[in-house]
Amino acid sequence: MESVKRVVLDVLKPHQPDALEFSKAIAEVGSDYHVTLTVVEVDKNTETLQVEIVGSAIDFEAVQAAIATLGGALHSIDEVEVQSENDTG
Amino acid sequence: MIVLDQVKFLLRITRTRDIVRRYFVVNGFDGALTMLGLIVGFLISASENLSIMINACLGAAIALGMSGMSSAYMSEAAERKRALDKLEEAMVSDLQESSHGKAAHWVPLLVALVNGSSPLLISLLILTPLWLANAGIELPLSPLHLAIIVALLLIFLLGVFLGRIAGISWLRSGIQTLLVALVTVLLIYLIEGD
After folding, report:
1. Where are the transmembrane segments (chain B) (predicted)?
2. In this structure, which of A42, B32, B103, B110 has its CB flanked by the most CB atoms within 10 Å?
3. CA of A21: which chain B residue's CA is closest?
């Protein structure tokens, strides 16, 4: 069984909810998620974000659902770190 | 508590918190002044029948409530739909299932509820002395005079609330709204009184 340890996502979101509320809502999806959000670009109605999530086992579908609930759109998965069960590294 | 947080969240993302506040004050003020006008009118006409006065005021209060509710719902639903359409266009995605979609559905209802209940509740408070007198409860003043005092007090409090929002002197703001009410009473006396 593999677990996702880290993902970096390219996300487009409306101005509201703001970056703080957006990252908090994503962090709430898991019990040990560490979220780093960077606003890459600000447009008239939208913001492009780089969202980095680090956790022991990231539930990607739940993260994606949280982003959609907040009105965001996942554009791409830019970086991923996955660990298999026997991987001790 | 969760429902309240959800409501606050929807108001925040749609930036309608100040609109709700404004509707509450504006329509509450409408309700208070309408009741004040009716009661002063009854006072001038030296009407004695409390049931007729209560029914007339209650009818006006219900009409104000319904008018506030329906007008706010229709205008706010149109505004929220327009905002959602613009956002969907910018996001190039369907936001119906998102918080923004939920907000477009619930915020107009919430705004309508505030806009309708504000004049209704304020009117009912102003009518309290009339009800008490009608129920046979002894009052220190005549019910119409007491109702006018309640109306002036509520109008003053609405002014205080406005002053606190604006960050200006609450006393000055309260007196300003009170002056509007007193001018209204004066006008009624000038036009209706003989």
Report:
1. 24-46, 52-74, 106-132, 144-163, 170-191
2. B32
3. B9
Give the type of residue at B151.
A
Whole-number percent of chain B with pLDDT over 90: 77
Distance from the first to the final alpha carbon of chain B: 55
134-163 in chain B: CB under 8 A from chain A: none
Residue type, A25: A
Is residue B16 situated within a structural domain?
Answer: no
Q: Are B87 and A44 within 8 A, CB to CB? A: no
Report how far residue B160's alpha carbon sits from residue B169's, in angstroms, rounded to the nearest whole number: 8
Give per-residue pLDDT as tens, B141-159. 999 999 999 999 999 999 9
Interface test with A, best of B87, B94, B102 (most A CBs within 10 A): B87
Return all residues near B42 (Cβ < 8 A) that are at least 6 apart.
B53, B56, B144
Q: How many structural domains compose chain A?
A: 1
pLDDT of residue B122: 97
Name the one residue in this structure whose structure tokens are 């002197």. B169
As for the ipTM of the complex, it is 0.80
- Looking at beta carbons, which pairs linking B161-170 to residues 24 or more positions away fall under 8 Å? B161/B25, B162/B25, B165/B21
- Both B69 and B126 in one domain: the answer is yes
- A87 min Cα distance to partner chain B (Å): 38
Please state, in angstroms and rounded to a whole number, the distance separating the CA atoms of residues A53 and A77. Answer: 11
Q: Does B3 map to a domain?
A: no
